[in-house]
Amino acid sequence: MYNLDMEALFNISTSIIVISILFRIAAFENQRWVRQRMSGIRGTDEFIGSLVDLMMPLGSALWYLFLIAFGLDYSFLSALWLWMISAVSSVIYSLVMKDSLIVWMISSLILLPLIIYLIFQTTIFGLLG
Question: Where do the domains of the chain lie?
Answer without folding.
Answer: 11-35+49-119
